[in-house]
């Protein structure tokens, strides 16, 4: 597999908080001092080294950690510790335990690492983000005096509290833009100097790592006059991961949907949803449209699945296996527009795959395009209980009706 | 008259000796397209042969254009090298560069697009199926097929089609052809967030093209390009337009296959796009099965 084929493997690759801090450290973006620990001994050692009160934070991707509960009954994935012994105690209660937050679902996430950092006294929380901007084909910085809250709500209710700065696609970030943004955030005097340096280094990190977005929320001013990134969210451009093995190495597969991980290994583009009608389609636009039409006729799509232009037997087999691993799935709609490929070859592939995985739920197949008559004949004489459909409309109605009957 | 390319347009293929590039170069030759040159660095002097066609291969786009009179390039170069390939066709002064490649880093496209400002070259794509101006022969043979679309589904006629998606375009084209309505030109602008040509750019061309009588525009979730196109249609477009937006059932925050197909921060929803299209007097197909019928009704043909 060529390296750039990795892209579909990372639908939404996220990194852990401690990894974000490591990136900050590498690029000179001021952040809370601290390190990651995998054992309670390490946690105590880091707290001793910091020689200050610390914060111990469970490392999972999901939000809502502070308000979460561990399955062992321990409450909260974020705790303030006044001594190294206390930091160790908190770490021992989090490591190897499963944390349930409003974002993890009831099954929760296993905590393998904790971040131990200096507990900083916050004077003010701000917001700062850099994003790739499709509207300008460039980059935009968004900053606000309202940090620590949902920025979309700020944008909706108090848009005057949001400052925007467009960054030139080839010139990049300029110091004057940093000063303008600092001024908009009320960062004057020595804080302005710190701000311009932080913003410039963050832009350097953003470009160097091919991020599609970096969001610092909150960016804080401490009571002792330091400006630092306290929490951050990174999104990476999947298309550029081929040139960032160091970012790919940060991938934590245990944080991802196992079906999406399996799909990525067959170069399939799969996204699990919460309905019961699975679909298997060639092409992203047609795959979305197929989900839409299922919904239009009163069904609920169980997934997005693009098998690409070819729809080979191997891919279709792998796709069926992934679809069927979702216990909620009660029916399957296959929708292939055979443009270049012969529909008869596709039909044979679908039949072989269906036989191999012995599908026992309703299966509707809609083929269109090149040599479609032969393809349909192959389907109808296969001996399998395949419902053949003429149009996409027909296919969607057939699968929705089949589920109502069963 | 069609837009962007005619059956006489001479095209070259960057990446003609690769798997993907050679397969589609052959299909274009079979379709009767004036495919006159190939470019693969290091393979200059070779000849790309297919069914009696002999297509010379060059090391550089500049040489290929100069020696064969090609004015359009289609790019099948792998993602790490694709932005460079686009800029090479710009440097060679071509009229049009069509980037089929999927998976080009966004930062590469941001820089390439900035570098193209002021040049004479138009870029279509990347991550697109290309474009087809159907020919007058059987199964639209003799047309200009640039990219990866199946040629035979087309028919020469008077509907312009513009879309962000590949197979969904074929779906619309096939619906039209099956109902006896042909196309002037079908343009796939691609599913990436940073692209060379927008829905709006293509709509303007269709509006000016005397042969195009009606238009199908296919959009999807993400960005605001469909809204911008709708606003322009409302004020300026003289021709009936029908549209379909894919992704009404897509969950927010997830990228639906195409790099640009994502609802983020409440922006780019199908509902907002459909509302903008309807407000502009565009007939919106309720399902993807109804794209052609929706246009034909709006156009007064059905």
Question: How would you describe what is shown here?
Answer:
The complex is a heterodimer of chains A (406) and B (302). Chain A is of the alpha+beta class and 406 residues long. Chain A has helices spanning 17-27, 40-50, 84-94, 151-157, 175-184, 190-208, 245-248, 258-265, 284-296, 313-324, 343-356, 372-380, 392-405; strands at residues 34-37, 54-58, 69-70, 78-81, 98-100, 109-110, 114-118, 122-133, 138-144, 162-167, 211-222, 227-229, 232-236, 269-272, 277-281, 303-306, 331-338, 363-369, 386-389. In chain A, the strands form five sheets. In chain A, strands 8, 9, 10, 11, 12 and 13 form a six-stranded antiparallel sheet that branches. Chain B folds into two domains: 10-124, 3-Layer(aba) Sandwich (Rossmann fold); 155-299, 3-Layer(aba) Sandwich (Rossmann fold). In chain B, the strands form two sheets. Chain B has a seven-stranded mixed sheet with strand order 3-4-2-1-5-6-7, with helices on both faces. A seven-stranded mixed sheet of chain B has the order 9-8-11-10-12-13-14, with helices on both faces. In chain B, 32% of the residues lie in helices and 22% in strands. Chains A and B meet through helix 9 and helix 13 of A and helix 4 and helix 5 of B.
How large a portion of the residues of chain B is in β-strands, by DSSP E? 15-25%
Indicate the overall shape of chain A.
elongated
| DSSP strand content of chain A | 25-35%
**Largest sheet report of chain A:** 6 strands, antiparallel
Rg of chain A is 26 Å
Counted up, domains of chain B total: 2
Q: Using DSSP, what is the number of strands of chain B?
A: 14
Oligomer: heterodimer
Order of strands across the biggest sheet of chain B?
Answer: 3-4-2-1-5-6-7
Q: At the fourth CATH level, what is the homologous superfamily of the largest domain in chain B?
A: Succinyl-CoA synthetase domains
Estimate percent helicity of chain B: 25-40%
Cα gyration radius of chain B (Å): 19 Å
């Amino acid at each position: 597999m060529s390296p750039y084929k990795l892209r579909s493997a990372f639908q939404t690759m996220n990194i852990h908080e401690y990894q974000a801090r490591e990136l900050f450290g590498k690029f000179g973006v001021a952040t809370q001092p601290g390190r990651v620990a995998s054992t309670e001994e390490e946690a105590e050692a880091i707290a001793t080294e910091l020689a200050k009160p610390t914060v111990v934070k469970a490392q999972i991707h999901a939000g809502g950690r502070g308000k979460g509960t561990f399955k062992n009954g321990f409450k909260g994935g974020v705790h303030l510790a006044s001594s190294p012994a206390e930091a160790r105690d908190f770490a021992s209660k989090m490591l190897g335990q499963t944390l349930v937050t409003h974002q993890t679902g009831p099954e929760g996430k296993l905590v393998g690492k904790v971040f131990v950092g200096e507990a900083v006294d916050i004077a003010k929380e701000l917001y700062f983000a850099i994003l790739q901007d499709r509207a300008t084909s460039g980059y935009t910085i968004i900053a606000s005096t309202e940090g620590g809250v949902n920025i979309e709500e700020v944008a909706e209710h108090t848009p005057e509290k949001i400052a925007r700065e467009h960054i030139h696609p080839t010139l990049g970030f300029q110091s004057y833009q940093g000063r303008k943004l600092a001024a908009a955030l009320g960062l004057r005097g020595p804080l302005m100097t710190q701000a311009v340096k932080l913003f410039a280094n963050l832009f350097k990190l953003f470009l160097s790592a091919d991020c599609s977005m970096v969001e610092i929320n909150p960016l804080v001013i401490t009571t002792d006059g330091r400006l630092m990134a306290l929490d951050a969210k990174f999104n990476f451009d999947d298309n550029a991961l081929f040139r960032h093995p160091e970012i790919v190495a940060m991938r934590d597969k245990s944080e991802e949907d196992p079906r999406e991980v399996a799909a990525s290994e067959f170069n399939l583009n799969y996204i699990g949803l919460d309905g019961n009608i699975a679909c298997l389609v060639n092409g992203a636009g047609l795959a979305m449209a197929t989900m839409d039409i299922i919904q239009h006729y009163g069904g609920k799509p169980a997934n997005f699945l693009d098998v690409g232009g070819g729809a080979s037997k191997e891919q279709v087999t792998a796709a069926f296996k992934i679809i069927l691993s979702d216990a909620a799935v009660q029916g399957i709609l296959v929708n292939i527009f055979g443009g270049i490929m012969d529909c008869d070859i596709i039909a044979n592939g679908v039949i072989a795959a269906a036989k191999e995985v012995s599908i026992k739920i309703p299966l509707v197949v809609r083929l269109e395009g090149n040599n479609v008559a032969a393809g349909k004949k192959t389907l109808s004489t296969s001996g399998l209980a395949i419902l053949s459909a003429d149009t996409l409309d027909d296919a969607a109605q057939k699968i929705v009706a089949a589920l109502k009957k069963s | 008259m069609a837009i962007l390319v005619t059956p006489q347009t001479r095209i070259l293929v960057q990446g003609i000796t690769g798997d993907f590039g050679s397969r589609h170069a052959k299909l274009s030759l079979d379709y009767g397209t004036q495919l006159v040159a190939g470019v693969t660095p290091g393979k200059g002097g070779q000849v790309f042969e297919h069914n009696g066609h002999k297509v010379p291969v060059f090391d550089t786009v500049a040489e290929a254009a100069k020696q064969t009179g090609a004015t359009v390039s289609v790019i099948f170069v792998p993602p790490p090298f694709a932005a460079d390939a686009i800029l090479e066709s710009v440097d060679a002064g071509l009229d049009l560069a069509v980037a089929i490649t999927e998976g080009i880093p966004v930062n590469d496209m941001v820089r390439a697009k900035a570098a193209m400002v002021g040049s004479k070259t138009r870029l279509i794509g990347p991550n697109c199926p290309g474009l087809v101006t159907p020919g007058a022969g059987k199964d639209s043979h003799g047309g200009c097929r640039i990219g990866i679309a199946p040629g035979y589904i087309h028919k020469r006629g008077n509907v312009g089609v513009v879309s962000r998606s590949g197979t969904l375009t074929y779906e619309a084209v096939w619906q039209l052809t099956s109902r006896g309505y042909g196309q002037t030109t079908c343009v796939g602008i691609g599913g990436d967030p940073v692209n060379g040509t927008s829905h709006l750019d293509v709509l303007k061309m269709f509006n000016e093209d005397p042969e195009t009588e009606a238009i199908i525009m296919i959009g999807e979730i993400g960005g605001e390009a469909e809204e911008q196109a709708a606003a322009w249609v409302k004020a300026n477009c003289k021709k009936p337009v029908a549209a379909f937006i894919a992704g009404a059932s897509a969950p927010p925050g997830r990228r639906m296959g195409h790099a640009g197909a994502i609802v983020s921060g409440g922006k780019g929803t199908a509902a907002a796009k459909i509302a903008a299209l309807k407000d502009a007097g565009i007939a919106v197909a309720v399902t993807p099965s109804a794209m052609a019928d929706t246009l034909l009704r709006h156009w007064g043909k059905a």
